[in-house]
């Protein structure tokens, strides 16, 4: 068994290295070119139509508001990796990895946009009158490949069991370390809170995440901004490190072992892609329920999701780690995941550790809530609403089992399961890329949407 696990880990490590990073990057560049570099052409308009319109009544029909769809999607992407994954990218890829993380974020906006546009365009109403959609629906209706939708749906439904176990274990370990509470109790409390939210459906999830996500993001990013201000004299040097070592190898310094440019690019791309989940097909499930008058308008909200997740939250972590100098401390390479906590503790004392712990708990809790919803939508697509409710119970049990460290051996298969979800979705996005372009052109050329918005803006 140990040999099998070692073999799986080696293969998944290779697969999630150059092959899948290259696939996602090429897909992002292809979609960016095909859609006419629209994320570079209309940044102000995209902002105005999303965060700039949160106090306006949404147009069109849907189950939740566009903001609630965004916060639900962000709940799954903003997680522990934003706090512990970024320091790892810096330690193994150098400060230049941050630059490449930004580059892939901008490129992958086109992929996330395409997924969400397709999810809204091909969505359906379920038995309860709620809008449902995602890769499984655009595979079935857009490509007439129900078998591909079944593959995606089944793979995601199963993959979420070990994924939720890992999340449960993560939050239990964090709580145990800080508050000395046994993992089983943490798992039961998290499962109970999750159950109260997810059995209320997407409307309740939307209402909760609409409050939870801005709160947790402001709490963590606010703390990070204070640390950067405290080290403001280091900011020019940090910016210089990020840009200069994006294109040249960096030699060893302090606890940092040195790195080649190829590794810098790989770690930056990997961190950006893993964080925002572009291409994975998960966030479109949340965006599909949004109230909107055109799929492209909701696609703009998917772009803002990447801005918040990668360009804001991940960047906040990077600046904290680099400006405080913790990445150069002796022994930093041994435990990169702890660097953010160390930086906060050195800046704020015991309160700093507490702040990171609370942020981690909120990040992981919100992730669990939304991925349980994602999994239940797969069961609904494959079977029916009753199956969706039953799967929720399985996921709640997985939280408790994960919190006590059960079934750690199957965690090794997690990356392989993720690849089984990503591949059919990327195939579908590429095959439907012309449909995305058609919808994008329709939106920007029609008097009903973009041109109307521009005229109204000029009049006001």
From TrEMBL:
InterPro entries given in the database record: Na/Ala_symport (IPR001463)
DNA damage found in the keyword field: no
Residue spans crossing the bilayer: 14-37, 69-93, 99-122, 143-164, 184-202, 211-232, 238-262, 300-327, 347-375, 387-404, 410-432
Coiled coil: none
Keywords assigned: Cell membrane, Membrane, Symport, Transmembrane, Transmembrane helix, Transport
Bilayer disposition of the protein: Multi-pass membrane protein
Pfam families listed in its UniProt record: Na_Ala_symp
Compartment(s): Cell membrane
PANTHER family (UniProt xref): AGSS FAMILY TRANSPORTER, SODIUM-ALANINE (PTHR30330), TRANSCRIPTIONAL REGULATOR, LRP FAMILY (PTHR30330:SF3)
Family of this protein: Belongs to the alanine or glycine:cation symporter (AGCS) (TC 2.A.25) family.
The name this protein goes by in its record: Sodium/glycine symporter GlyP
